[in-house]
Q: What sequence folds into this?
């Protein structure tokens, strides 16, 4: 299944929009790349959430994708949700260039992220270490300002 690709078109409440491509590598890692605009400058929590459901906007995407029933953390922590991808950084122009490589977000198998959602938040993800009551569940990353459903990408 080398080269399997997925795409998510990001939209949100304000002017947040963008597109992301997910490319599964032959070693099982998935590369996420793309651009999201309309953000406030600075860090924004960035996660895979459980459901590809935007019936009531990004709030319908459920909690962080967490097949191993762990606590929230950073991408490089042992204790993390599979969906924890840390933060993306928007520049002064409000644009975040996304480039993430991660081993826990496959496009195939039991823990596939296909049909789930990618979500960008208003605030920084504290990576589980902020000491806030939400640190161990959401990283206290605040409102969901943009999201998109992850679907198989057309090859044409
Ligand atoms: Cu999130
Ligand atoms: Zn999490």
A:
């Amino acid at each position: 299944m080398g080269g399997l690709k997925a795409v998510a078109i990001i939209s949100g409440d304000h002017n947040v929009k963008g597109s992301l491509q997910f490319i599964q590598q032959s070693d099982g890692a998935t590369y996420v790349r793309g651009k999201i605009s309309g953000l406030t400058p600075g860090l924004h929590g960035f996660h895979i959430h459980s459901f590809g459901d935007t019936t009531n906007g990004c709030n319908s995407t459920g909690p962080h994708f967490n097949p191993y029933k762990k606590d929230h953390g950073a991408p490089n922590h042992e204790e993390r949700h599979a969906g924890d991808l840390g933060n993306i950084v928007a520049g002064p122009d409000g644009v975040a260039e996304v480039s993430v490589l991660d081993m826990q977000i496959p496009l195939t198998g039991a823990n596939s992220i296909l049909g789930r959602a990618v979500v960008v938040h208003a605030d920084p993800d504290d990576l589980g270490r902020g000491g806030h009551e939400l640190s161990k569940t959401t990283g206290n990353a605040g409102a969901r300002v943009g999201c998109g459903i992850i679907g198989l990408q057309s090859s044409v």
